[in-house]
């Protein structure tokens, strides 16, 4: 009888671990994909608050899988200094980054 209780306790522990791993999966996926900054923080908060509903968890999982990864640093093509994605001018050499995407052009147009 004691062995059956031990097996039951171990299975309960494994079940709790698996459920917790699935619950926090969207946060791990977002972090592993490189989603950072405010987007990753928002994914974490929404997952903690609405993940228990099932639908909320599914929405956050899809959000983590589809979130744009714009916060990765890049190197200045002239001096190889690390720049933020949003920076258009290198803080080290002061030169303008050559390639600007259509999304970045749109964000520049709407700011001015």
Explain how this protein is built:
The chain folds into two domains: 2-66, no CATH class; 74-111, no CATH class. Helices cover 59% and strands 4% of the residues. It has five helices and two strands; from the N terminus they run H-H-H-H-E-E-H. It has helices spanning 2-23, 25-33, 38-50, 55-66, 102-111; strands at 74-75, 82-83. The protein has a two-stranded antiparallel ribbon with strand order 1-2. The protein starts with a helix and ends with a helix.
Outline:
Helix content is 59%, strand content 4%.
User: What count of helical segments does DSSP give?
Assistant: 5
Q: How far is it from the N-terminal to the C-terminal residue, by CA? A: 75 Å
Whole-number tally of structural domains = 2
Cα-atom Rg, whole angstroms? Answer: 22 Å
Overall mean confidence score, pLDDT: 80
Choose one word for the global shape. elongated
Proportion of residues in extended strands: under 5%
Return the structural class.
Answer: mainly alpha
Q: Provide the spatial order of strands within the biggest beta sheet.
A: 1-2
| Percent of residues in helices | 55-70%
Low-confidence stretches: none
Largest sheet descriptor:
2 strands, antiparallel
Question: What is the H-and-E element order?
Answer: HHHHEEH
Please report the total strand number as a whole number.
2
Question: Quaternary state, please?
Answer: single chain
């Amino acid at each position: 009888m004691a062995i059956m209780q031990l097996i039951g306790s171990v299975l309960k522990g494994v079940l709790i671990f698996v459920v917790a791993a699935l619950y926090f999966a969207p946060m791990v996926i977002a972090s592993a994909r490189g989603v950072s900054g405010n987007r990753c923080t928002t994914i974490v908060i929404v997952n903690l608050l609405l993940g228990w509903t099932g639908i909320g968890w599914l929405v956050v999982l899809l959000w983590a899988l589809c979130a744009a990864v714009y916060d990765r640093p890049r190197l200045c093509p002239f001096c190889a200094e690390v720049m933020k994605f949003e920076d258009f001018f290198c803080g080290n050499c002061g030169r303008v980054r050559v390639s600007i995407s259509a999304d970045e052009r749109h964000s520049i147009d709407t700011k001015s």
